[in-house]
Amino acid sequence: MAKSNKPIIWFPFAAGGTVIAFFIPVIVLLTFMAALGYVPTGLSYDSMRAFAGSGIGKLVIFGVIALSLWSSAHRLRCTCYDFGLRADTLVANVLYLAAAAGSIATAVYLLRI
Amino acid sequence: MKERLVQMEILRYNPDTDTEAYFQHYEVVCQEEWVVLDALNKIKETIDPTLNYRWSCHMAVCGSCGMMINGDPKLSCHTFLRDYAGVIRVEPLAHFPIERDLVTAPDDFMEKLKRVKPYLIPKAPKPISEGEYKQTPAQLKRYHQFTLCINCMLCYAACPEYGLTPKFIGPAALSLAHRYNQDSRDGGRDERQEIIASKEGVWECTFVGACSEVCPAHVDPASALQQIKIASSIDWFQEHLMPWGKK
Questions:
Q1: Mean pLDDT across the stretch A50-55?
Q2: B200 contacts in chain A (CB < 8 Å)
Q3: CB contacts < 8 Å between A and B, how many?
Q4: Is A10 in contact with B195 (Cβ distance < 8 A)?
Q5: A38 touches chain B (CB under 8 A)
Q6: pLDDT exceeds 70 at position A1
Q7: What residue of A is the nearest CA neighbor of B200?
Q8: In this predicted structure, what is the pLDDT of residue B245?
């Protein structure tokens, strides 16, 4: 029996799951605080923009967004399968393409800063 | 001791006479502190001797009395009547063919268990004169939890992936493979990987986690499968991206 090539898909999925678990709740909280007008100085528009402008900042933001998108796409694919939607190749292509499009858009916007 | 009239709806099927399975209703007086298996035994002894089911130890050790109780996979010797009100519905374990009444055929699981080589494969032959294998508590801890499996197959009845894809090696067999892979005395991981790192192996799992919820021995198969996925992913990257690191 041949070993599966699934790790190519699963490893970024698992990495994305970890990123989502650690970063997304914090980002949601900070965004919520910002919406209510509580913005800590370190997270002001100017300092965030400067962060996104630096090489390491671009890399971190891209990593968080791209891995989260990939992870969500794969999770949704598994959910579709579990709920009986068996057109797996079609579902996988649509969802992974959506994640890829989101990742490319992120890269483009980050490079324009 | 308090007594109670228990109503049960039990799935019946006799392959010699029935074309399909049906539910039979029973009413039986039970002690309040009894388990479902006690009620089944009383039905068999006093009402209907034709009722078939498997059991042996009556203490959640042998793993033979697994059945669906109100839709959940449970050991009937470990499921108390006092936790249920109204009619208790008892069916054979889901996802396995019914042999007769509550008895299912475990052949598929047995065959899969054999395929993952759930036994120690020593790294090199070691004569008895060289003494025993020694392990530190930390080495024991790496696999101890996965030794607690009693092969009751509740995890297979709970796993939606096994229901959808019967070829899936499944939670218990994979956890037992992992148990030996994690053992410092073992050298058989490469042999087992051929089976467990295949598509029908660990990669059919979507981490639903139902296996760990129903496991009466707290093996936590879902955790074993996640650990296998990480190890198999590292293998894959080493084999494909770092050919110089190949064993």
A1: 93
A2: 1
A3: 45
A4: no
A5: no
A6: no
A7: A4
A8: 61
CA distance B208 to B210: 6
**Cβ B90 vs Cβ B68: under 8 Å:** yes
pTM: 0.88
- pLDDT for residue B247: 53
- Residue of chain A minimizing CA distance to B164: A82
For the A8-112 domain, the top CATH level (class) is: mainly alpha
CB contact under 8 A, B199 and A11: no
Q: What is the mean pLDDT of residues A51-71?
A: 95
Nearest chain A Cα distance for residue B205, angstroms: 9
Tokens describing residue A43: 């997270």
The parts of chain B modelled with pLDDT lower than 50 are none
Q: B7-24 burial, b for 16+ CB within 10 Å, e for fewer?
A: ebebbbbeeeeeeeeeee
Which has the closest alpha carbon to B35: B58, B63, B7, B11?
Answer: B58
Judge residue B87's burial from the number of C-beta atoms within 10 Å of its C-beta, 0-12 exposed, 13-18 middle, 19 or more buried.
Answer: middle
Instruction: Enumerate domains of chain B plus CATH numbers.
Output: 3-104 (3.10.20.30), 107-245 (1.10.1060.10)
Q: Quick check: B194 and A14 CB within 8 A?
A: no
Q: Which residues contact B123 (CB under 8 A, 6 or more apart)?
A: B185, B186, B187
Q: CB distance A7–B208 less than 8 Å?
A: no
B4 in contact with A, Cβ within 8 Å? no
State the smallest CA–CA distance between residue B46 and chain A in angstroms: 44
B170: left (phi over 0), alpha (psi -120 to 50) or beta: left
**A7 contacts B193? CB cut-off 8 A:** no
